[in-house]
TrEMBL record:
Domain ABC transmembrane type-1 intervals: 73-263
CDD domains with a match to the protein in the record: TM_PBP2
Annotated localization: Cell membrane
Topology within the bilayer: Multi-pass membrane protein
Pfam families: BPD_transp_1 (PF00528)
Family designation: Belongs to the binding-protein-dependent transport system permease family.
InterPro entries, per database record: MetI-like (IPR000515), MetI-like_sf (IPR035906)
Transmembrane segments: 72-96, 108-129, 141-162, 183-205, 242-263
Main location: membrane
Protein name, entry field: Carbohydrate ABC transporter permease
Species whose genome carries this gene: Teichococcus vastitatis
PANTHER family: ABC TRANSPORTER PERMEASE PROTEIN MG189-RELATED (PTHR43744:SF12), ABC TRANSPORTER PERMEASE PROTEIN MG189-RELATED-RELATED (PTHR43744)
Keywords assigned: Cell membrane, Membrane, Transmembrane, Transmembrane helix, Transport
Length: 278
């Protein structure tokens, strides 16, 4: 009886969350449905998610036949993986120092990190483009990765998570003779996988879907990321063929959906455990 009472009490909240989740998913559901339809069914006055004529083979066939899908996905993996690797390498020690070490100017440095959160990524785009042009690094993986290797959001997120770790754990590691860097990578990081997974989701989604910077730096298919590949497909091949465009968008976003479904538990744990500690 208590379990049934608890379920009845939580039922309105669960129904509201389910409805809100379905509302958030509607654009993606529509995109998936449109990728299965011929063009004349997509913009009918009556909305029907299931196609009358199944057009998936034609729509997805156009995408695989006309653009190098594998290359775009590989570029996305290289760029997002490289960015995430460097962000973690820099952010984990920085977050640990701000959370657990005592040094003069620590609060000032943390204030600078907070101010860095206010700087839009578009602001340094022009000087960065000029710098990469001068050294001949346009249309390279280096130009796509380097501007994002230090993430102030990652530093803030890890700092907040590390604040919740018990100091006794750090003191015990120091008594065992471990250096601060050894503590960071061998003690602190293994206990911070929920925060690391949460940040990885944020980082990969942001840079996988980023169109602004790759559109400036990349020229042609060789280093085009998935979002830029969809734009190239629309400009050169698809035109107003929205069924094929939705198919291309489905292919490019599918890895993100699969990755999130696999990591959603740790993602929620990381966000819940990070908190708002001062």
């Amino acid at each position: 009886m208590p379990e049934r009472t608890s379920l009845l009490r939580d039922l309105p909240r669960l129904l509201f969350l389910a409805a809100a989740g379905l509302l958030m998913l509607m654009p993606y559901i529509w995109m998936a449905a449109a990728s299965l339809k011929p063009l004349d069914e997509i913009f009918r006055a009556s909305l029907s998610l299931w196609p009358e004529r199944f057009f998936a083979v034609e729509n997805y066939g156009k995408v695989f036949a006309r653009i190098p899908v594998g290359l775009y996905l590989w570029n996305g993996v290289v760029v997002c993986g490289g960015i995430l690797l460097f962000q973690v390498l820099f952010a984990v020690p920085a977050g640990y120092a701000l959370a657990k070490l005592r040094f003069r100017g620590r609060e000032l440095v943390f204030g600078a990190v907070m101010l860095g959160l206010l700087v839009p990524p578009h602001v340094p785009a022009l000087p960065l483009y000029a710098a990469f042009s001068q050294v001949g690094l346009l249309n390279t993986y280096t130009a796509l990765i380097a501007p994002f290797t230090i993430s102030v959001f990652a530093i803030f997120l890890f700092r907040q998570f590390f604040k919740s770790l018990p100091d006794d754990l750090i003191h015990a590691a120091r008594l065992d003779g471990m250096s601060e860097m050894a503590i960071v990578w061998r003690v602190v990081l293994p206990n911070a996988w929920p925060a690391a997974t949460a940040f990885a989701i944020f980082s990969v989604v942001a840079h996988w879907n980023d169109l602004f910077w790759p559109l400036i730096i990349a020229n042609g298919d060789s280093h085009a990321t998935p979002a830029l590949g969809v734009l190239f497909f629309r400009s050169a091949e698809a035109g107003d063929d929205f069924g094929a465009l939705m198919a291309a968008a489905m292919i490019m976003t599918a890895p993100l959906v699969i990755a999130f479904l696999l990591a959603q538990r740790r993602f929620v744990e990381g966000i819940a455990s990070t908190g708002l500690k001062g």
